[in-house]
Known about the structure:
The chain has 302 residues and is an alpha+beta fold. It has helices spanning 2-10, 40-53, 60-73, 76-88, 107-119, 187-199, 212-218, 243-253, 263-288; strands at residues 15-18, 24-27, 123-127, 132-144, 147-153, 160-164, 168-171, 202-208, 224-228, 234-240, 257-261.
Amino acid sequence: MRNDVARLRELGYPVEALRGRAGHYRLGVGAKLPPLLLDDEEAVAVAVGLRTVTGVAGFEESGGRALTKLEHVLPDRLRRQLASLREATEAGPVNTDSNVEDPEVEPGVLTEIAAAVRDHRGLRAFYGEAGERIEIEPYKLVAWQRRWFVVGRSPDTGDWAPYRVDWMTLRLPGGRAFTPAPLPGDLTELVVREVARTGWAVHARLVIDAPADEVLARINPAVGVVEPRPDGRSVLVTGGDSLEVVAVWIGMLGLDFTVESPPALVDHLRVLAQRYDRAVRQGDDRGANRMPLSDPPPRLGP
């Protein structure tokens, strides 16, 4: 037993010992990471996960270093298994829903915010392009739509809101310690609602020619917030990283709509309408030179 304990200590595991009749050994908390004891499936799973995280903005370098270290100590049989898995797999682009680059967030910033959430310690930061000074009581980090948000409460007004982490420059020292207040319902729903209203680079307000229930049945909850109207129609408050992204989401809705704001979205849709109209007319011209395979269907309406 002593020899085994001595070997564990040499490997970096802190082992506490107590002599006497009630003597025992106990694994302690170390100052550095000891070697991890993983079985074959766990080691491969961690390696695959690390390879995935190297594509997440802000974690490319640290994830790559960790993956290199792990692959270096894997047995030959696992290295071959991982190599065959890597050669047989091809990942598509991580960012498939925006033509704007993902914002990078330093892992150290996430760690600092997570510690403040854990310790019920306020955060002081410069926020947004204008560098507004804010102080919030942080409650939860939420990763959503390729963004990191910290849900916080203003100690002055008591208002709750999500704050984009990539828009925050933390100030030291941090804020005051606080006593947690009751959470205002579902935090993810809060993030979706408030981001649709204030958190996008482009915000849009659309009147949809359909009741709210039908719109809600057609959209992902992450797209935005739907409000019913007395006339049976509904309002969709949504947004995106760019006008192009918002236009794509609207097109996928499959319902008639009117843009209330912003005017730039109207201009962009007008350009798209002209482009699609040219494509249709060119297709009709080419189709006129081909013999029809069957009689055309009757026209419905004028």
